[in-house]
Each structure stands twice: as structure tokens, then as C-alpha cells.
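In response to the reviewer comment on reproducibility (Comment 2.3), we provide here a single inverse folding case reported in full, input and output, so that an independent group could reproduce the run without further information from us. The C-alpha cells appear first.
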């Protein structure tokens, strides 16, 4: 009887190990497989989440909630301790309050839905894809992503200024960013300087959504901006 009981316990332990190994292999396969490119450019959005179990359903539910501006549905996808800022703001109730009070938060979520997804080695999902990438030695506070293909770079802060080049989903730097201005002065990766339309620029530490699997379900564990 003792030997039989021991064999049952060992079988259960091995089954648990197999499940954990399967999940680890699943994420490893997703991170090592060729990502889906959603646009052209060095840092264009990519999708490495499609092969992770349950990720497609989670993202479909997320996209539906965002499109419908359905706070109940979005809050239902959040973890009990979802992080919302770096000053202690957290939890589903706080998320609901911010969704109700800040129309701009829905707009930010709209943008996130177009920026790809990264499955990382820790087993989490990161939206946008860029947030999970190694950008090298850049200053996160002055580095911006150009969120367009063949975006004009102009000699002055005007749509009528001479076009001196184009940029497709690449990183640029700025010493002074004024969100109210229609154009921003930037330095391109090759060192050239020019101006790019403000609406086509995004901080590399702008809003991001992190999700983790909890009790077999994907949950939003963070929706934050800044550093």
C-alpha cells in the first residue's frame, strides 16, 4: 500500500513538472519563432504572442473591450493588484475610476492595440512589442519612436517646409519636446537633424500593458506610463 501511494504521489509531481515544462517550452517557442511583422522599419510592431496558449483569446477580449469602451469588460481582465502608476495606484476599482474619469486613457489603449505584442522569457505578454526589446544605450526620456512608414522629415517645423528625408518606424532623439507644438525637432539615427510631426512620435516609455497568466487565465498586471 505504501509503495502504491508513493507511486501515485510521484506521478502527480511529475505531471506538475511536465505542465510547467510545457508552459516554459511554449513561451520559448513563441519567443524564438519568426515574429509577424506588422509594418516595415527597424522597430516596426511585431507579434510574437500568437503561439502562446490563450493569448489570442485574451487579446481579442481586450480589443473588444477597448473598441466598445466597455469598462466592465476591461476591468474583468485586470488582476486584483493591477499596477496603474509608480505611486501606489493599483487595483480594479482604481482602474475603473480612471477609465470613467480620463477619456484619454481609452485613446491610449486604442493606440496600444496597433503596436504589436511580445511574449518574453518570463512568461508575460508586453504591449507594445517595442517595450520588451533591447534598445541599446538610449535615454528613455529623450528617445521617441516614429510610428509611421516613410514619415517625412522636414527642414523646419511646418508641413510646407522642405522635406529632407523620410523615416519608417525608427528611433529619434529630441532635446526639447513640446506636445502642444505640431512638429518636434529631432536627431535621426544617422545624426541628421530635422522636424517630424508630433502626432507621429511616441515616447519609448509611453503607456504599456503587461499581462501574466494567473490561475490559468491571462490578466492585466500593469497599465502604466513613464519610468
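Designed residues, in position order:
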Amino acid at each position: 500500500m505504501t509503495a502504491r501511494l508513493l507511486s501515485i504521489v510521484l506521478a502527480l509531481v511529475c505531471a506538475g513538472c511536465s505542465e510547467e515544462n510545457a508552459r516554459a517550452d511554449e513561451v520559448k517557442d513563441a519567443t524564438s519563432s519568426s515574429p509577424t511583422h506588422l509594418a516595415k522599419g527597424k522597430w516596426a510592431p511585431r507579434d510574437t504572442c500568437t503561439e502562446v496558449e490563450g493569448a489570442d483569446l485574451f487579446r481579442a477580449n481586450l480589443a473588444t473591450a477597448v473598441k466598445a469602451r466597455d469598462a466592465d469588460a476591461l476591468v474583468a481582465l485586470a488582476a486584483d493588484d493591477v499596477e496603474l502608476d509608480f505611486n501606489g495606484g493599483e487595483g480594479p476599482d482604481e482602474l475603473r475610476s480612471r477609465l470613467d474619469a480620463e477619456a484619454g486613457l481609452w485613446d491610449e489603449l486604442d493606440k496600444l492595440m496597433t503596436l504589436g505584442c511580445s511574449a518574453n522569457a518570463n512568461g508575460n505578454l508586453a504591449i507594445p512589442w517595442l517595450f520588451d526589446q533591447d534598445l541599446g544605450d538610449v535615454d528613455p526620456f529623450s528617445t521617441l519612436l516614429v510610428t509611421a512608414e516613410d514619415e517625412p522629415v522636414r527642414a523646419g517645423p511646418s508641413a510646407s517646409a522642405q522635406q529632407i528625408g523620410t523615416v519608417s518606424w525608427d528611433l529619434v532623439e529630441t532635446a526639447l519636446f513640446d506636445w502642444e507644438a505640431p512638429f518636434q525637432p529631432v536627431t535621426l539615427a544617422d545624426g541628421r537633424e530635422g522636424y517630424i510631426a508630433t502626432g507621429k512620435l511616441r515616447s519609448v516609455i509611453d503607456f504599456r500593458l503587461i499581462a501574466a497568466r494567473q490561475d490559468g487565465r491571462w490578466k492585466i498586471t500593469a497599465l502604466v506610463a513613464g519610468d
